[in-house]
Amino acid sequence: MDWTSSTPYSRDLGDELRHLRQSCTDHTGAGLAEVLGWDPSKISTIEQGKVRATESDLVQYLTACGQNLGFISEFISRYRRAFDVCFAQSADQTRTLLLAERMASSITVYSPTNVPDLLQTASYAEQSLLSSGASPDEIQSTVDSILERQKTLYAHNAPLPTFYLTEKALDPRTHDRNVLRGQVTHLLRMARVVRLIPTGGKFPLVDDCTLIEYGNMPTVVFTGTHVAKIFVQEKPAVARCRSLFQKLDRTSVSPEQSIALLIDLHDTLGSGQ
């Protein structure tokens, strides 16, 4: 069984099923398969999000996990979109993106106006969210989510990341200087994966864009706003995203030049100029 029909959402919901089995029963995957009269591989492929379970399969599985009719109905409703190759969910949903990033082999990010989430310090994230009008609860929830996602970069099997950002994201006119200096310090620690587009350089006027690639699963394009998170794995969208990053590779300065620019900015912020 391959992963060609798998999507970030199918893997998320499959993982949710696995957590239900582990938390609500004493069954291993093989044990639950025996109870249901299924082949053990069927449990495995459903929990990994490789294949679409039928509604009858889900009713049997969730009933065996002790779930009530209300939960079963709600889960089936969500599951109907599990294998959509273009999928949107509300901005406060975080599991799908977190799991998508954790399973990736490489992540390439472009953020034209802000430091990418995966590189933001907590203070920079809080200030950016505050300026957008987010409530204190929204700020805390979003910052917690960002910090949890950042753990992916330090895992033993971490994806290979590349981040393209413009100097505009580090403009001292839009952020407190101390906050910004702390952010630049963090970027210097991560400088090996940072590519800067200097002020005056030509950069595409598009929204934030992330290309998430896997060794054995379809590539995913992700973009997010304050309203929604959007996942697309249609080939034309992936091709356009790859083309964008090829342009950014030509437009941005080298990692060594990026480091030099960051050091200059760090010194400028420290001197109060």
TrEMBL record:
Residue ranges of domain DUF5753 in the record: 95-262
Domain of life: Bacteria
A GO molecular-function descriptor: DNA binding
CDD domains: HTH_XRE
Pfam families according to UniProt: DUF5753 (PF19054), HTH_31 (PF13560)
Name of this protein: Helix-turn-helix domain-containing protein
Source organism per UniProt: Lentzea xinjiangensis
